[in-house]
Amino acid sequence: MSELVIEKVWKEYGDQIVLEDVSLTVASRAFVALVGPSGCGKTTFLRMLLGQERPTRGAILLDGEPLPLEPGSDRGVVFQRYSVFPHLTVLGNVLLGREFSAARYKAKLFGAARRRAVDEARRLIGEVGLSGAEDKYPAQLSGGMQQRLALAQALIMKPKVLLLDEPFGALDPGIRAEIHTLMKRLWHETQMTVVMVTHDMREAFTLATRVVALERRRDRPEGKERYGATITKDISIWPPRLAGTPSIFSPDRDGPVASLGHCRDDLASSGEIQP
Ligand SMILES: Nc1ncnc2c1ncn2[C@@H]1O[C@H](COP(=O)(O)OP(=O)(O)OP(=O)(O)O)[C@@H](O)[C@H]1O
Question: What is the value of pTM for the model shown?
């Protein structure tokens, strides 16, 4: 379970109302794409889900509990840039979250605990297609590889909710299509709830189960700061998609194995998926 409930949330900075009266329930295992004009408050909304900002009014609940006041391991995040640490290797970047959560002050793991974490980090590095790059630094990676690394870095903490702020916006179209395939596979495998900000409608409709638009209802220049954005459209993608569940309508496009273009042997042989 990882359901997010946003109840009548407002966000104001001084006199400026950025968001007004936003209510949204994001079901467990859903993938919501958040779209809207520049400056309407999408990142602000995501930062509230992360716990970096607090609503001025209203409440945000994760599985029925108010969100903790600061970011935690139950919520992972990937930004368009700067999600990874330039002075750490690929392996170091992926291990970091584990090291911090195990030893908050020294941020180092030792012995068997470190070996287990290293094994897990290497497995994830493989999952995102970066095997062989473990000892490289982010500056030695392409943009697409850096975003794959950022995904692995977020996933090692096994977040219930993954928050993505235009994570693929700076990538070339070909690389973006590849990373979409990866993102779909990871979403199906981990069955996380995902909220992704994007400017790319094609990306929104390719990945999401639901596309939600934030907009100011009254957009007169003189009233810009007096009215915040709210949800103006909420489109459920058809045929429906759900993490971990093959689509009955388009199994070749949507489903745990479909995004790979072929059926993974382990799932097929387990009888979970029909090849
Ligand atoms: N910490 C802050 N203090 C004051 N104002 C802020 C703060 N953070 C965001 N804002 C304001 O909130 C508004 C919404 O910003 P936000 O970055 O959330 O928009 P956005 O929809 O993500 O934009 P874009 O699509 O261009 O990234 C902007 O007017 C911005 O200046």
Answer: 0.86
Residue 10 CA to residue 102 CA, distance in Å, equals 35
Domain of 149, CATH number, reads 3.40.50.300
- Per-residue pLDDT tens for 86-105? 999 999 999 988 887 765 66
77: helix, coil or strand? Answer: strand
Question: What residues make up the domain containing 113?
Answer: 75-158
User: Does 43 sit in the ligand 1 pocket, CB within 6 Å?
Assistant: yes
- The answer to whether the beta carbons of residues 94 and 152 sit under 8 Å apart is yes
Asked whether residue 226 is assigned to any structural domain, the reply reads no
Instruction: Give the β-pairing of 57-62 and 65-66.
Output: antiparallel
In a domain, 264, yes or no: no
44 in ligand 1 pocket by Cβ < 6 Å? yes
More confident residue, 262 or 76: 76
Domain total of the chain? 1
Helices (H), 51-195: 90-102, 111-127, 143-155, 173-190
Instruction: Give 118-165 pLDDT, tens digit per residue.
Output: 999 999 999 999 999 999 999 999 999 999 999 999 999 999 999 999
Distance (Å, whole) CA 223 – CA 220: 5
| 85 close to ligand 1 (CB < 6 Angstrom) | no
Question: Is the beta carbon of 42 within 6 A of some atom in ligand 1?
Answer: yes
User: Which residue, judged by its Cα, is nearest atom 14 of ligand 1?
Assistant: 41
Contact 19, 44 (CB under 8 A): yes
Q: Prior bond to 239 cis, omega within 30?
A: yes
130's tokens: 């970066």
Question: Of all protein residues, whose CA lies closest to atom 28 belonging to ligand 1?
Answer: 39
* Listed residue (211, 209, 207) closest to 233, CA to CA: 211
Residue 41 Cβ inside 6 Å of ligand 1? The answer reads yes
